[in-house]
Specification:
Number of strands: 7
Radius of gyration: 15 Å
Order of helices and strands: EHEEEEEEHH
Largest sheet: 7 strands, antiparallel
Number of domains: 1
CATH topology: Alpha-D-Glucose-1,6-Bisphosphate, Chain A, domain 4
Strand content: 35-45%
């Protein structure tokens, strides 16, 4: 099956602590994620690890992610476990307080046959990055 490897980043003037608070506040992701992502939190009990959410970008087929590990103020590792993808995604916070590089990286396998076929016609990694750049801009606005 086809793969999606994508890395998107933005530089933000903020503290790692302030960015971290927003990244782990899953119930409020809809405040800064584009509506077109159709994000829904499936499981959040106050703990970061184990949080699950579902997305159906652009009204298309959905996928689900689960937080599987964290390094506070540095990294959130996600497992894409259901839907059209399988694999891993990472939020990372790098740099010094005041000037941070916030990135999201995915290494996914497309397991849905219709999306796999579509990947022959359009670049799914480019589509992922187009959407994720809007998410990163939303994060920057949420911080400011």
């Amino acid at each position: 099956m086809p793969l999606i490897k994508a890395h998107d980043e933005i530089t933000i003037q903020s503290s790692a602590d302030d960015v971290w608070k927003i990244l782990i506040d899953f119930p409020n992701y809809n405040k800064w994620w584009p509506k077109a992502v159709n994000l829904k939190v499936l499981k959040f009990d106050g703990e970061i690890v184990g949080t699950e959410f579902n997305a159906s970008p652009l009204g298309g087929k959905s996928f689900a992610c689960r937080v599987i590990s964290i390094i506070p103020n540095k990294e959130i590792k996600l497992n894409y476990f259901d839907g059209i993808y399988r694999g891993i995604g990472y939020w990372k916070i790098d740099g010094n307080d005041g000037k941070l590089k916030i990135s999201y990286t995915v290494d996914l396998e497309i397991v849905n046959k219709s999306i796999a076929f579509l990947s022959r016609l359009i670049s799914i990694p480019k589509l992922h990055s187009m959407i994720f750049n809007k998410i990163l801009i939303g994060l920057k606005r949420q911080i400011n």
